[in-house]
């Protein structure tokens, strides 16, 4: 099969890893890397046996597609010429810095029949994949995503920086639309929100609580799902997935719980037995496969097979729409001042 010709635009903290992985793929030709910083660009290019280009326009005639890993505010300007030319684009998340730009990029990709994939890399995390397989119909979902302040992505706030990962995961888990959003947040270092919390009500009936902060001393990425099968929790960092579910007898006859209580006169004994006898615990360690490599494999495969990627432009726009409603919610109530403003129509 013909090798796919790709370039990476922006080889900073994340883009350099895209270049590293692509340079090792047998079915990919890393045509070059693009970065306005000559020293950084040449260093990454030499390290991975390719060429450095100062401007994206220089690589456009040479490639089948590009990975865009520049600051979010530049996404629209960088991606537009490639999409107009019908070339494939893998855009690092979020798709754009605002919803209008995201919609324009998505519509342009559709009009030009250009493949547009967005880097919601947690979809490729083996722990999330395992959680998705094991969860039943979600009734309640809680996501927490905390990280120390990295002084990266300061052009966007924590909603587009961190929370949008979990918004995308929730949409994938529920397969339904958001009915309503309530949110609040706080600015610490600024200029954008550094902490945000949101409650989503889904059209399927599920309730979702999301919390994101980039001012936490310890990183945490967890997803918990209460479903019709029981309770499942995934640690996206350690990749451990734990399931709690009623034993077969209780699951078959929920009213049996009253018989269990009546037959156990000592409440302390009952408490000890619950998680040993009546509720089963299953702990699994998900695969150690690299999620970024899997994402790039999906991009290359989508180009070769002319198929829809796992995370399409439409998926990214859906996540951006929810993020936009969360941001609107943040303006309704100031956690720091206690001031209340009239609700934005987009929140409802």
How is the topology of this model organized?
Blueprint: E1 4-9, H1 15-23, E2 28-34, H2 38-47, E3 51-53, E4 65-68, H3 75-84, E5 88-92, H4 99-111, E6 116-119, H5 126-134, E7 138-146, H6 158-174, E8 178-186, E9 195-202, E10 207-213, E11 220-227, E12 230-235, E13 240-246, H7 248-252, H8 256-262, H9 267-278, E14 279-285, H10 291-305, H11 313-330
Characterise this structure:
By secondary structure, the protein is of the alpha/beta class. It has a domain at 4-122 and 291-310: Rossmann fold, CATH 3.40.50. 36% of the residues lie in helices and 26% in strands. The protein contains 11 helices and 14 strands. It has helices spanning 15-23, 38-47, 75-84, 99-111, 126-134, 158-174, 248-252, 256-262, 267-278, 291-305, 313-330; strands at 4-9, 28-34, 51-53, 65-68, 88-92, 116-119, 138-146, 178-186, 195-202, 207-213, 220-227, 230-235, 240-246, 279-285. An 8-stranded mixed beta sheet has the order 8-9-10-7-11-12-13-14. It has a 6-stranded parallel beta sheet with strand order 3-2-1-4-5-6, sandwiched between helices. The longest helix is centred in the C-terminal third of the chain and has 18 residues, at 313-330. The protein starts with a strand and ends in an 18-residue tail after the last helix.
Descriptive terms for the model:
11 helices; Rossmann fold; 14 strands; six-stranded parallel beta sheet; 36% helix; eight-stranded mixed beta sheet; 348 residues; alpha/beta
